[in-house]
Amino acid sequence: MDVSLGSTHKSHTLFIRPKKTAELKWTDSVESVLGATCMSSLTSVLHGYCVLFWGVTFSDIKNENPFCLFKQVALDNTQNCTQPHIIFILVDDQGFRDVGYHGSEIKTPAIDRLASQGVKLENYYVQPLCSPSRSQLMTGRYQIHTGLQHSIIRPTQPNCLPLENVTLPQKLKQAGYSTHMVGKWHLGFYKRNCLPTQRGFDTFFGSLLGSGDYYSHYKCEGTGICGYDLYEGEEAAWDQDHGMYSTMMLTRKAISILANHNPNQQPLFLYLAFQAVHSPLQVPARYLERYKGIPNLIRRKYAAMVSCLDEAIHNLTMALKRYGYYDNTVIVYSSDNGGQPLAGGSNWPLRGSKATYWEGGIKAVGFVHSPLLMNKGTKCRSLVHITDWFPTLVTLAEGTLEEDLNLDGYDVWEAISEGRPSPRQDILHNIDPIYIKAKNGSWKAGYGLWNTAVQAALRVGHWKLLTGVPGYSDWVPPQTFSTQRLTHRYHNERIRWDRGKSLWLFNITADPYERVDLSQRYPHIVKKMLMRLAHYNKTAVPVRYPAKDLRSNPQFNGGVWGPWYKDEKDRQDEEHMNNHLTEVSNKKRWKKKFKHRKLKRRVEE
Q1: What are φ and ψ of residue 554, in 5° steps?
Q2: Where are the domains of the chain?
Q3: Cα-Cα-Cα-Cα dihedral of 385, 386, 387, 391, to 10°?
Q4: What positions does the domain Sulfatase N-terminal occupy (predicted)?
Q5: Which candidate, 70, 116, 234, 506, has a CA 20 to 30 Å from the CA of 102?
Q6: Chain-centre distance of CA 232, in angstroms?
């Protein structure tokens, strides 16, 4: 017999499924099926829970004995596992303003509740694009130290997170964790060794690329270069694909992982990397109904996607409580970069957007929620960077951090949990030696210490230095999303690039919106920071940004995006296998031919 839950925000529904019979809704006959004692206990467990499971049922649990349900529901919250369970939620392209507690018109009650009961990270930085943030999360190292300092990893490139880098899941696995990834990878897949299950995850369900259709999971990288992108482990997940909306599908999978793991026996690391709210802007119609008051269709769709995401966070949190994880769990929530105004995102009042080194591109929504926090309901204003999660979480997991890891991140748990000063005093946002588009950049403008044509950004204490072309630099106020004509909008914030600038200095503490450039007023600080940039640059490894490989076309891989590249060793192994198969085939053919001749002789005799 399977027992499953379904509910809405207004009412509960219990489904009882005897083996090989149809589902029965909650009726008086339920008590006769379960028994009065079981019914009473189950009712007490369910009381107060209000969850949308999006199709997840207790039939997803391996144990089909209904009387073992109470172990899964965790009536006994005693934890035998001292290491905390770690849930890392990475959201895609959520703008700094696009959360309720930052004043957005978008309703995010679940996220707001978790953040208010945890610690809000209000001085938290990520990278301006997908792959860079994910690479630094996985390795605890700056882009200049992994060779991924330029742009993103594109699906047609023979490129991935360098294999010599130890990853966060690998370290957690060494510490005894069960490691699972659900969602968007975007760290390369040209070789099988690059896939998530080869980089420390026990299981993987999700997409390899940076974006795709939320329902069909197809992605095109140009005319005739289209393919399917949904994986279970190291194979295309055709059987798992039921046309479900991505946010719901990934949440369902994450909850299923929680349901099938015993939280008392082994610590769990779940990396849930949502596709939302990255373009394309797709969302079930019922979420759009909540935002009829937003006249701009792009913003309305984006808001609806955020609401669906918020519901997913609610469902995941309830599952953590239901299956006995919550009391010993650390939940980290983070966006991977700033929002994209052209796709509905808002970073107001910060300057700039996704793909820029202005605050709007790199200052992220982030918080930590856990019963294990010392100072709950607080704000952490200490400097925290996405590279810090590697040493912080490994240390929290009672793992080891060897010196040869050469980490750029710091253990910031005490700063977050107890409000102590952060060990981090600076952040190298990046140095991209390929992106040198600043026409007026020169060594002279950099006092002979640095070529200001190079795109770079550095934070030291209160100060932030930018060189080169940092990217789209407008402030985009909320009124911009209205349907009024441009001349009627409050939009006098445009910046003209005819000033010929290639260097800026801001005091971010005093001027968080980057409105007053202080580079001319404090040249001595500029020089010190340029020297710091030059010092970092000496430690940089060569950029990895290979040309497009035509063999990457999914048409050559059964219509699926996946590994295509074979190095010399792979080719030798494949050639050896082909030779072996050919030899076996020839032997079989020879035996068959010999047998035929022998039979022919007998007939002739």
Answers
A1: -55, -20
A2: 85-424
A3: 100
A4: 84-397
A5: 506
A6: 17
- Angle made by CA atoms 319, 324, 327, in degrees to the nearest 5: 100
Measured distance CA(396)–CA(384) in Å, rounded: 16
Alpha helices in 197-271 (DSSP H): 246-259
Residue 130 annotated as catalytic: yes
CA distance 200 to 184: 15
Containing H/E element for 429? strand 426-432
Helix (H) / strand (E) containing 236: strand 235-236
Taking the C-alpha atoms of residue 97 and residue 303, their distance in angstroms, rounded to an integer, is 11
pLDDT band, very low/low/confident/very high, at 43 (cuts 50, 70, 90): very low
Rounded-to-5 percentages of helix, strand, coil across the chain? 35, 15, 50
What CA–CA distances, in Å, run from 597 to 586, 588, 593?
16, 14, 6
Q: What is the pTM of this model?
A: 0.83
- Any idea what the Cα angle at residue 316 is, between residues 315 and 317, rounded to 5°? 90
The full DSSP string for 439-506 is TT--TTTTTTT--TTSEEEEEETTEEEEES------B--GGGGSSS-GGGSS------GGG---EEEE
Point out the catalytic residue in the list 130, 160, 194, 308.
130
Query: Strand 426-432 to strand 455-460: parallel, antiparallel, or no bridges (unpaired)?
Result: antiparallel
> In terms of Cα–Cα distance, which of 68, 76, 73 is closest to 323?
73
Residue-wise pLDDT tens digits, 482-512: 654 433 333 444 555 446 799 999 999 999 9
CB 186 within 8 A of CB 582: no
The tokens describing 77, both together, are 């919250």
- Measured from the Cβ of residue 44, the count of other Cβ atoms closer than 10 Å reads 10
In this structure, the number of other CB atoms found within 10 A of the CB of residue 548 comes to: 15
Residue type, 326: Y
**CA 322 to CA 269: how far, in whole Å?**
17
Half-sphere exposure of 105 (CA within 13 A, CB side): 19
Cα dist from 55 to 60, 326, 454, 456, whole Å? 10, 22, 51, 47
C-alpha 93/C-alpha 130 separation (Å) is 8
Q: What angle do CA 482, 485, 486 make, to 5 degrees?
A: 90
Q: What H or E segment, with its residue span, contains residue 334?
A: strand 329-335
Secondary structure element (H or E) that encloses residue 273, with its range: strand 268-273
If one counts every other C-beta atom within 10 angstroms of the C-beta of residue 174, the result is: 14
Tell me: pLDDT of 533 over 80: yes
| Nearest CA among 535, 531, 538 for reference residue 447 | 531
Q: What is the CATH number of domain 85-424?
A: 3.40.720.10
Element (H, E) at 36: helix 36-46
In the set 186, 217, 261, 369, the catalytic residue is: 186
Residues of the chain with pLDDT > 70: what percent? 77
Q: Which helix (H) or strand (E) holds 235?
A: strand 235-236
Asked if residues 345 and 93 have their Cβ atoms less than 8 Å apart, the reply is yes
